[in-house]
Design a protein that fits this description.
heterodimer; A: Butyryl-CoA Dehydrogenase, subunit A, domain 3; disordered C terminus; B: alpha+beta; 9 helices
Chain lengths: 183, 260
């Protein structure tokens, strides 16, 4: 192959990667930041994710680039969480946590209407990551259940129930209300 | 539909993710049930709050590294890339050869490629930087629950560069770094009890060449952009080890590599 030709192909591919993935940098970082909980690991996770995305870009067929990238970001985050050994909260299946103890609201819990930005953030941080990720993807990124299901590699029914429970738990945290979970 | 059922579907109703029939049933119920209507309003308030919650923008450092949206990644100039001399080659190999026809790499293979690429790109090639096995081997002590063999292969054209701690499949593993010409070779070693020995198997993953084998309860993976022939000559492979296990000795006559 003519080296000039290869070079051009290279440039084209790189341009394709950049055009498809760079516009999602903020969203990718936001997801990572919510998933790993601190700026340092979020930054590392996003960097990992972009390198991985670059490595596997040929497997991307141009459909839902944001979702494709989010799935990679999410994996990078969970890998990072494993590395920093906060694994317990992450890997206990959330559905079994669900059966455990009623939620005890913190003293700072407020009525929903008064809940300010800080409270909602703290509330979101309190949720198990399985709830947090679907809420971030849905409420901040406006993704469909189908897109979320692909990202978290779970059936749509799981997305649906995690969102419902995540919202309910968040409301409880925000309003200080303890309600018996209806299953 | 009763209140209990409606509660179950309310979140998906709010998201407009239900089919028409169920949506209509819920609307019917909401029209005459103050309790469920209030629950829906509360849920919508929570959603509105969440939608207005802080979105963390990518920090300037990351943005600088990857460029502004729509900008070009300065692959050749970014300082985090400068460390890796073989970078350009590695990236070209990935781009050029990541082949649709290849079998999909399994999780471990992917992680190995990723750690290899990351070690080259992310300026984290070495935790211990020494060509001396007497320095590299003890460095792992206390950091791992096993002691990896660290061999001096310089007489066979593979220079020891150092080592680092890495993570594969959820566990800490030792990564030994060798170099041949300008090609970096990452050699990952970790114990895997109860597995039979296995002759070296060549792999091509995402444009990189890799070879793995199992010997004496240890799993070995070597990966590089080095060509597969030279990589498989890496004299760590057990079939190259003479009985005395002196790594400097030549391959004993009559001993051929098991191709399987
Ligand atoms: Zn009702």
């Amino acid at each position: 192959m003519d080296p000039g030709e290869l070079h051009l192909t290279e440039k084209e591919r790189r341009a394709r990667f950049e055009a498809a993935m760079l516009p999602h940098l903020d969203a990718a970082y936001n997801l990572a930041r919510w998933l790993v909980g601190n700026p340092h690991d979020a930054e590392d996770a996003v960097q990992d994710a972009y390198l991985r995305a670059l490595t596997y870009f040929d497997a991307f067929h141009g459909e839902d680039g944001r979702g494709w990238l989010f799935a990679i970001v999410r994996n990078a985050c969970y890998q990072r969480l494993r590395k920093i050994r906060r694994s317990v909260a992450v890997f206990e299946p959330v559905e079994s946590l669900e059966a455990a103890a009623d939620h005890k609201p913190g003293p700072e819990a407020l009525h929903l209407r008064e809940a300010d930005r800080q409270t909602i953030e703290r509330g979101l941080e309190c949720l198990p990551p399985e709830y947090r990720e679907v809420l971030v993807l849905r409420e901040m990124e406006g993704m469909s259940y189908k897109q979320i299901a692909r990202i978290i590699e779970a059936p749509i029914g799981t997305v649906m129930s995690r969102l419902a429970r995540g919202r309910r738990r968040l409301q409880e945290i925000l309003t200080g209300e303890t309600r018996k979970e209806t299953v | 539909m009763n209140c209990h059922e409606v509660e179950k579907w309310l979140s998906a109703y709010e998201d407009r993710e239900l089919d028409l029939a169920r949506t209509l049933e819920i609307e019917e119920h909401l029209a005459e049930c103050a309790g469920c209507s209030a629950a829906l309003r509360k849920m919508e308030e929570t959603s509105a709050l969440l939608a207005s919650a802080v979105r963390f923008p990518a920090p300037p450092e990351l943005r600088r590294r990857f460029g502004a949206p729509g900008a070009r990644i300065p692959w050749h100039t970014a300082p985090w890339l400068a460390a890796a001399a073989s970078l350009a080659l590695a990236v070209v190999v990935v781009w050029r050869y990541a082949p649709p026809a290849q079998h999909a790499p399994d999780l471990l293979e992917r992680d190995i490629v990723q750690e290899h690429v990351r070690s080259l790109l992310a300026d984290h090639l070495l935790d211990v930087n020494s060509p001396d096995r007497q320095t590299v081997k003890p460095w792992f002590r206390g950091k791992l629950d096993y002691a990896p063999e660290v061999a001096d292969l310089s007489s066979q054209g593979f220079e020891l560069v150092g080592g680092r701690l890495d993570y594969l499949g959820g566990r800490a593993v030792s990564a030994l770094v060798y170099q041949r010409a300008q090609h970096v070779i990452n050699v990952f070693v970790w114990p895997e009890a109860g597995q039979p020995d296995q002759a070296p198997q060549p792999h091509s993953i995402a444009g990189f060449n890799a070879v793995n084998w199992r010997s004496k309860g240890m799993n070995w993976w070597a990966i590089s952009d080095l060509n597969s022939v030279e990589l498989e000559e890496l004299p760590l492979c057990p079939c190259f080890m003479p009985p005395s296990r002196t790594l400097h000795a030549a391959t004993p006559p009559g001993m051929t590599r098991n191709p399987s």
